[in-house]
Specification:
113 residues, alpha+beta, 6-stranded mixed beta sheet, binds coenzyme A
């Protein structure tokens, strides 16, 4: 199920659709997903206002995990923080090209479910 191609995952792309990352739920101009090796980074997520609190973000995260990827969220804000804690994310700061970055990680062991 894992794809070997790294880079941005676009809303409505084949991989995006597999994860439920579609433009009817998420604003494609303000939502940024990146695949790097065995991880998918949610660098920004923006759900259309009318679609909020319907579980789309939690479903997106669950789908990515079920596909075998570690999910990573840098510097989460507001309600995103609460969602990540509820879903069992752990803070594990990451040494990036830009220096140490606050990173919240769901399953950094990379095992498949
Ligand atoms: C944060 C955001 C991405 C969540 O997306 P979503 O699809 O609505 O999230 P879900 O429906 O999967 O989960 C929402 C959960 O957060 C809770 N929640 C939402 N807003 C909240 C708030 N202001 N205060 C407390 N809890 C809040 C809901 O009660 C729900 O929890 P529950 O499942 O226990 O009932 C969305 O609200 C959004 O796009 N916000 C604006 C942009 C933003 O802040 N992005 C995150 C930046 S890192």
């Amino acid at each position: 199920m894992r794809s070997e191609v790294d880079g941005q995952i676009l809303a409505d792309s084949k991989m995006g659709r597999r994860f439920g990352f579609t433009s009817d739920k998420f604003d494609p101009g303000a939502s940024w997903l990146w695949k790097v090796d065995g991880s998918v980074y949610l660098s920004m997520i923006w759900v259309h206002e009318a679609e909020r609190n319907k579980g789309h973000t939690q479903a997106l995260i669950s789908s990515i995990r079920k596909a075998g990827y570690t999910v990573k969220v840098p510097t989460p804000l507001g309600p995103m923080n609460l969602i990540l804690k509820k879903m069992g994310f752990k803070r594990k700061d990451e040494n990036t090209e830009m220096g140490i970055c606050e990173m919240w990680v769901l399953n950094d062991k990379g095992e498949k479910r």
